């Protein structure tokens, strides 16, 4: 028994030593870096019962030596790089003891050949995903002991193969996902199938009315991403053991109050997303006490949210986004103490966030964006556990509570397009994990607080379209070095299937649970998303892409002063927008250090001087805009700058170069002429100033004399004032000059 599973140092291991172990009965080399071909000396391992070479880098044609290992019971070759001639199942015909066979390929490296041969084995597990089958292998007509069958991603077409269920009465797991099956019918005979996945096919029409009767023992059913329509059959309610039901991305319709799924009391995962369901969401109480994951997004549900889900107190994920729900957010949602994700975006909800949400102690994602929420954010609202908070596109107002920035858990804060005013809070937790700060489109005032520089993990910041003033803090270079992470709920990491090599039965029994454990990790990982404007359009970043995005948008404010040269240290930044401000000074030459930048917008400011020719070193730059400034001199026209047109430079009268069809020679002559004219005009202005000053003095004196001549009263007061001045001068001279 030799087990070398996932030892990444074994790429230098030599097979010759293994071949000498003639009495070896189990060999597990899965998850290493073996390359090349399997050696022919494996013929010597005549007692071998288990061979697992999966997840390596083996190449070439599938080895013929396997055909001589007649004692084999378990053979796993999936996730390698075999290629060359066709693989034939007939090469395994002599392996009469074989019970488990697994093979899958990447891309189109290998074509599995379908031949009319009768293997001597009776398989229990057959896994052939991504094998370019085209048709179901004929030898399966003669297999009667299958418990697990995976034919996913094989371009199979035709009707659902009901004969597989008829021939294999012990079949528990059937995966046919991502094929081209189009017709779905069932026989009347009951079957003990536990897990069925026919997602991503071309099935149309209605589900068979007897589905819940024929497949009454189903534990997991995934029929998503097809074109099924109509109502869900009433017989589905007879699946008392059903734990996972995914009918998303079809054309199902009807109301939940009449849906048979409310009778599936064992449900833990219910996904009805992307259908045409309507009416209210569970208007009556439902006894789904085990429900953990509920996805009702992208349907046509309407009306107020009733309290039908009150008994589903174990909910961990609730997604009712993108419907037509109205009214206030019910306070009883605060009773879901196990809730990790709550998404109610893109509805017509109004009012404010219930203070009962303080009870959601482990909530990590809260998305109530794109509704009609109003009022100010309650300062007593404690969302200290929330990592991603989305409240954008509502009508929330008032000042941003200081408590939002005091916690350390928050990673994404999106308050864009609301009515917040006042200053950006400056009470920042120095241990904050905030990575995306989006405050665009509010009425925030005052300078950008220097305390934001404490957000050392921040990589996307959008403060545009506010009324911020003052200069850009030089310490802003402390930001944007960390990348926005898509780290997510650690408790939902996908469980990797360990096929095992010793106990096949344990694998059978755990298959369904592994599906449940794994599918939530895949789904939840898609929730974290950040929208950021670059290249004049909003881009959505999520998953792995989000890890590599860094951007800063301070546009459409009232910022003044020079562009801090320290910004040039933000070498990981991809988008920088400082447009529509009152920035002055020069464009820093050190902008050439921003090697990763793709979009640079400095338009509508008061920048002067030349466009630094060093910017041609920015090879990733695809959007550049310095229009409507006071720039002058030649425009760089090499590298990326040869792709920018006149719109990038308009509104700068003293720029020249091919992009704007203006000769730099003529421009220099014009500038010299303008300079001389300015000097002459300056001299004339001084002469005019002197004459106008004398004329003004004479006019004032004549006006004063005319008033004294006409009005005797003012004349007496004037002479009295002159007399007082003379007496005061005489007194001062006598006391301080002549007396000494």
UniProtKB/TrEMBL annotation:
Gene3D superfamilies: Ribonuclease Inhibitor
Organism: Citrus clementina (Clementine)
Coiled-coil region list: none
Taxonomic placement: Eukaryota, Viridiplantae, Streptophyta, Embryophyta, Tracheophyta
Keyword Cell wall biogenesis/degradation appears in the UniProt entry: no
One GO CC annotation: plasma membrane
Name recorded for this polypeptide: Leucine-rich repeat-containing N-terminal plant-type domain-containing protein
Localization in the cell: Cell membrane
Residue stretches spanning the membrane: 688-710, 717-734
